[in-house]
Amino acid sequence: MSETQDAPLDWAEAAEQRVLDEALKVVPTAGWTRLMARRAGAAAGLSDADVELLLPNGAADLAALLSRRHDARALAALSAIDPAALKIRERIAAAIEARLDAAFADEAALRRWAGFLALPANLALGGRLAWASADLLWRWAGDVAADENHYSKRAILVGILTGAVAIRLQSGRDAAAEFTARRIENVMAFEKWKATTRFKPSEALAGAARFLGSLRYR
Known about the structure:
about 0% strand
């Protein structure tokens, strides 16, 4: 892409970050709303038309930008750690801790962000953002799974991340760390059981699907 083509993208990305910076100042009292997005845009020197063009989904777009900023912060912090030198449970614990610390640097806004994503209309967005975070953390941890484990690992980490955020918001850092440690231990025990048992969950699910299919199409 040429420098001329790059320029609009550079402007848009810089403008998004300016608006997000302003949003973080007002969202603790204003909440995640379209009006808040316009206020933040005006504070960043943009017209309502510019804000509409840049953030067509208003507060939802800003919520996504904040999550991606926290992802980037977490990865920057994790860059100082060699995951290969850690056991897998240590990698995941470190990844979760880094992601939580990145998010809680904006704790006042995070509280309103979590409430916004808990609204029924925003549940899908919250799920996508949590999945993206889990995927980045697993990739940092060295996961290269391309089978069903790719999805199960991320689904499990989504559950741990969202639970840890809620507990840290309510009960603090130590309680969240204890929750994370317990959940990781539970997951590791399950993985050990899967490796040693003759029962294969994927085979059981496939068998159940075949059985249900036979009932429907018999």
